[in-house]
Structure formats: structure tokens, C-alpha cells
Fold:
Amino acid sequence: MATIEQPLPTVAKSDSRLTFRQRTALRHTLIHLFLIAGVVVMFIPLAWTLSTSLKSPGEVYLFPPTWIPKEILWSNYAKAVTAIPFFRYLWNTSYITLVSIAGKVISITLVAFSFARLNWRGRDAVFLLMLSTMMLPPHITLIPQFILFKYWGWIDTFWPLIVPTFFGGPWLTFLVRQYFMTLPRELDDAARIDGCSSFGVYSRIIMPMAKPAILIVIIYVFNGTWNEFLLPLIFLHSPSNFTLALGLRMFQGESSTSWNLLMAASLLTMLPVIILFFFSQRHFIQGIVFTGVKA
Structure:
């Protein structure tokens, strides 16, 4: 007689796999933890600079080092600005930076407008030639520049640091040109119908709409000029013409270095750059993206 096999009872298995929402939340959590760890690592040098600027000279050399000074000396900042002609160097740096920003903005936007909005013979070839100069390291041209500026009598003046900024630069010109190309061509046609010249289109139509591009030029030029060390070191010889980057070297003596005063002066020097970045961070990111029409 045939027997009927009974099916074995099945045990329900619990699904241990994460849902899509849980996997997404876990991934975002890991990404944020990684970014926070990176921020902490990047913040360590700044925190150590602040800690050292508030220490006494003897506490700077303690081992193991201490993060929180036993006695917080805010007077180090007053000593730092009086140990060297800090405000004289601040004026020199501010003057060079502001004039350099004006020169870069004028020259770069004009050249970028020509490459992006005007049609002329050989435009693309000249644009490629300009981009090819990015492959040339700037240090190679230092000797010819020094010989030329010495022949003109510009050594130990601000002219070698200011005049070249009125001749633009390939990298920022490329960025601004890419931004100008995103603006509708119909704006140029409408302006020309109303009687605008090419310069009128540039000044009345394009420039008012190019605020993100102009801001990114200002940020790049400010940061590069404010922190520039090599060019002032080569072209400036008199202490009265020194910039802040050169002035910080005066804290390094032959036998010892006043690290607490050096760190205090360094923080004061970094302060304008930090303030500029925090107030213009949104515009900086917006200018980098270069997508769509931005007003």
C-alpha cells in the first residue's frame, strides 16, 4: 500500500538584510563620519597654531606638549605686531592685493569676453595657445622677468608684483570664458539691435550677470597674492617694502625663534583669508559649478 509523504514543516527565516532606506542611511552616516574625521585632521594645525600663540616662550618647548596653556597670554598678539612693523607690512600687502585684484578682473574678463562672445579669425588657435602656457612652470620665467624688470629699474618696487596682473592669466581666463559661454546669445543680439557696441555688451549685459565668475576671480587672486612669498622675496629688498609673508621671516632669529609670537602674527595674517572664505563660500562653490545662467 503506497504511503503519502508528508511535507516537512518549514521554519520561517527572518530576513536579516537591510532595507533600501536603512542602507542609504548607513551609507550617509559613514560618509559624514569620514568627512568629520577629515575636518578634525585638517583643523589640528590651526588649533596647534592658536595654542602656541597663547603660550609663554618656555612652555612652547615642553615635552610632551600641552594643548591648553597653563597661562593664556593674549599679550603675545600685541607683542607680535610691535616686534616687527606689522601694520606697515599689512598696508603693503593690502595695496598689492587690491591693485592685483583690479588688474586681474579687468584683464581676465575682457579676454574671456573676446574668446566667448566675439567671432574673429584665429580665435580658437589663440585660445589653445593661451591654454598651452599652463604647461609652462612659472618658475622658469623668473630669471627673464628679473632681468627685464632690473633693466627698467623696477627692482625693490611694487611694479613687478602689480603690472603683470593686468595681463590676465590662462587658468582664470579659461574659467571665466566657460562661464560666459553659458549665457544666452540672444542677450548679445538684443543689445546690438538696441545699438550697443561690443564694449557695451561687455559692460552693460555680460558683466552684471557675471558676479559668480568675478567673485571666484577675486577669491583666487586675493588668496594667491596675500600669501605670495616667492615673488616678493625676489623683487623686494628694502624692509620698508616687505609684505606680511616676508615680515613673518623676521621672527626667525639666528639662534632661536619666538614661536609664540610667530604663531600669533601668522594667525593675524590668516584672518582676512579665513573671513573672506566664510563670507563668500556660497559664491565660490556657485562659480566653480558653472551651470546655467546665474544672475
Observations:
- The longest helix spans residues 20-53.
- The two ends are 90 Å apart (CA to CA).
- The mean pLDDT is 83.
